[in-house]
Amino acid sequence: MDDTPDDSAALLQLLGAPGSAVFLDFDGTLVDLASTPDGVRLEGGVVEALALLAERHGGALALISGRPIAQIDAMLAPLTLPVAGVHGVERRDADGVLHVAATPDVSPVLARARALAAIYPGLLVEHKRGAVALHYRLAPELEQLCVHEMTAAVQACPGVLLLHGKMVLEAKPASTDKGGAIAAFMVEAPFAGRRPVFAGDDTTDEAGFAFVQQAGGQGVKVGKGPSAATLRLASPGALRTALLAASVSPFKE
Fold first, then answer.
1. Domain boundary residue among 139, 173, 207?
2. How far apart are CA 102 and CA 75, in angstroms?
3. Statement to judge: residues 193 and 243 lie in one domain
4. Closest by alpha carbon to 81, among 30, 129, 41?
5. What are the angstrom distances between the C-alpha of 247 and each of 87, 96, 162, 186, 220?
6. Cα separation of 135 and 139, whole Å?
7. 129: containing domain
């Protein structure tokens, strides 16, 4: 029996409040996790719900993801939203302007990750702008080896931080995170002056939870695991249900 708390009613109230700014992670939050990043699928009606909810909030809805923006756009097509990609390295604001942070050289990490994947076919390497992700979901027995190799590689790269996610290790710029990406949106129209709500599922989302709660908003942790978020949902399915309901329900003060 799943004893994960369900704060769906509280989330629905936040999504239905006219002064909210909505921020959503993608993998494990909007979509269920899959064996590989390319294997995720959006459930029917989600894109339409996002479009409706964004319109109701005057455009104050953005995705905050570890994926590159181009991948998010492809998943949501034809819908185009404000997006922060690669944990804030890339950010497209509500006016469509792309902001790109300076990034350190991650080529040594990339080389080491690719060398490891060449030995163990169950490993998958993603090279993003200024970041490298090593997925071991298909080879969970290699976790400790992956941690050892990626930790050593990152230690040799100044300005690079290693994130431990769900069956993935990601080397990314230490100077950017999801909290900083949300903060950047919150000083711009149409997000400025609103109460931020951020839903995410992984350790990579904790910086986002910390920021929105410090700013008087709410963090929503999707799934199990320790978190600083004050609200909790059992699964991505629970989040999708709340989004669909909020997109068609009247605003409530």
1. 173
2. 26
3. yes
4. 30
5. 26, 23, 37, 22, 18
6. 9
7. 107-173
- CATH number, domain containing residue 88: 3.40.50.1000
Q: What CA–CA distance (Å, rounded) separates 55 from 74?
A: 20
Q: pLDDT tens digits, residue range 212-234?
A: 999 999 999 999 999 999 999 99
Query: What percent of the residues of the chain are helix, what percent strand, and what percent coil, each to the nearest 5?
Result: 40, 20, 40
- In this model, does residue 1 exceed pLDDT 80? no
Asked if the bond preceding 173 is cis, omega within 30° of 0, the reply is no
Residue 2 lies in a domain: no
Domain count, the chain: 2
Q: What is the pLDDT of residues 94-145, one digit of tens each?
A: 999 999 999 999 999 999 999 999 999 999 999 999 999 999 999 999 999 9
Regarding whether 163 and 114 lie in a shared domain, the answer is: yes
The CATH number linked to 118 is: 3.30.70.1020
5 lies in some domain: no
DSSP string, 144-182: HHHHHHHHHHHHTSTTEEEEEETTEEEEEETT--HHHHH
Together in a domain, 95 and 46: yes
Beta-carbon count within 10 A of 118 CB: 10
Q: What six digits make up the tokens of 166? A: 């769900």
User: Does residue 162 share a domain with residue 41?
Assistant: no
Comparison of pLDDT for 4 and 31, the residue scoring more: 31
Exactly one of 7, 25, 202, 205 is catalytic; which is it? 25
Whether residues 191 and 222 fall in one domain: yes
Does 38 participate in catalysis according to the annotation? no
